[in-house]
Amino acid sequence: MTRPAAEAGPILYFRGAEGARVTLAVLTIRHDDVMPGAVTTPLGTAEPTRICARAGAVAWRHDIVVPAGPDAWYDFEGTRYPVHAVIEGDMRIAYASCNGQEEGDLERPEDERNAMWRRLGEDHAAAPFSLLLQGGDQVYADEVTKADPITEDWPDMTPRLLDAHRRQALRETLAEAFFRRYAQQFAQADIAHVSARIPSLAMWDDHDICDGWGSLPERLLDCDAGRTLFDAAREAFLVFQFACAADEVPPICPDATGRSLGWRVTLPGLTLIGPDLRSERRPDRVMGPAGWTVLTDALSEAREGRVMLMSSVPALGPRLSLIESLMLLTRRMEKYEDDLRDQWQSRAHRAEWQEFLRALLEVHGRAPVTVLSGEIHLATRATMDTDHGPLHQLVSSGVTHPAPPKAWALTLGALANLGEAPLAKHPIRIRSLPGRWAKYTAKRNYLTLTRSGGGWSAAWEVEGAGPTPALHL
């Protein structure tokens, strides 16, 4: 008999705030014959809602409300979980991305894999975070495709038509594999500790689906296996990163059609925006019509305080088009083409990248914009010159992904020295972390953002080195 998926949770998600009340969702994974009890808060009691059943387990959601402030809590199954529900004034936010690796991720010893999660939990105990922003690749699901013979060679496969029965069977197999992977990851002790105490806001990237999703050839994206893979990944994304059922649109997502899962959250003096750079991605575009509508509406409505925008791939980066040009000289490099096509700086996205940057510049004139990004398994930062002071990008990537070779960090640093200016009179400069000389830091890391006295600062927690000095934004 096949073992059921791991039990996991409670896992906390941020929904919004109004006045003195903060709305959250709590997700738990329990085996088929186990129904969780109610969740109690200072403001009431919530019963569980069943949202998904897979792999011998059920995902349950509790919708709860807690009082805004430092002493909020919820009780679940005999344990009281403190929640630092501070949404105005002085506050701290954590940001992380790239929670895994391409092969053998969940077979790694937990102590080694989750060292930075453990550090994040210790950091939270010392000075609590109000939010955890997760910028992409929350799971590395690349091995999910091996669950079925049709997709086991993905993406090195020949697309073929599948009848309705085979498509449905593939859908069930992949959906179960995604469910198991998420549940096993959330059951790991250090991730579970943080996830139960810090409300999360997340946006997916390619590895939450498969390596290079959206930048792969269209014959793969549009074949029966490709669309089935995306549908299964989307269901798991909604369940485990939004605490929503597959047919729901998360309440923080403005697009009622669900074509784009980009979101916006407004807090006192702070607008948080998470564009969806994967749902409508194609080799020749990053976002489709729905995604652009969500983004432009969110930016146009940002009026006060700071805007923090998550771009799962860096919006400010070196001149990667030079590497793309070199790839045209040899077929041996073609397998890396989709990795570069993933980037805003790709030749294929140049015009859209410029449009994206112009949209950020327009807002930066009335509310300072800070871009939060990951994806590259390195830590760095960048600025773009504007008439209203520098527009900052903070890159934190590799909360569990092993750091790439230092030679790769040096190569990117050399490219950064060439400069980049996709918009005239607005040059982009890659800069080192505070207290470091190299432009890219090849260590696992996460980012902390602190508002104190109305001003914001950032610091990187770097494995083996501790926190960097604060960068004032």
Explain how this protein is built.
The protein has 473 residues and is α+β, with helices and mostly antiparallel strands. It has helices spanning 110-113, 115-126, 164-187, 189-195, 218-221, 224-242, 289-300, 321-327, 337-341, 350-364, 406-416; strands at 8-18, 21-31, 39-41, 44-46, 49-54, 57-67, 69-76, 79-85, 91-96, 131-134, 200-202, 263-267, 270-274, 306-311, 369-373, 380-384, 391-395, 428-431, 445-452, 455-462, 466-467, 471-472. Helix 2 (115-126) runs parallel beside helix 4 (189-195) and helix 3 (164-187) packs parallel to helix 6 (224-242).
Mean pLDDT: 92
DSSP E strands, number: 22
User: Biggest sheet: strands, sense, closure?
Assistant: 7 strands, mixed
Strand content: 25-35%
Q: What is the count of helical runs?
A: 11
- Helical proportion? 25-40%
Structural class comes to alpha+beta
Secondary structure layout plus pairing:
Layout: E1 8-18, E2 21-31, E3 39-41, E4 44-46, E5 49-54, E6 57-67, E7 69-76, E8 79-85, E9 91-96, H1 110-113, H2 115-126, E10 131-134, H3 164-187, H4 189-195, E11 200-202, H5 218-221, H6 224-242, E12 263-267, E13 270-274, H7 289-300, E14 306-311, H8 321-327, H9 337-341, H10 350-364, E15 369-373, E16 380-384, E17 391-395, H11 406-416, E18 428-431, E19 445-452, E20 455-462, E21 466-467, E22 471-472
Parallel strand pairs: 9-10, 10-11, 13-14, 14-15, 15-17
Antiparallel strand pairs: 1-2, 2-6, 3-4, 3-7, 5-6, 7-8, 9-19, 12-13, 16-17, 16-18, 19-20, 20-21, 20-22
Helix pairs in contact: 2-4, 3-6
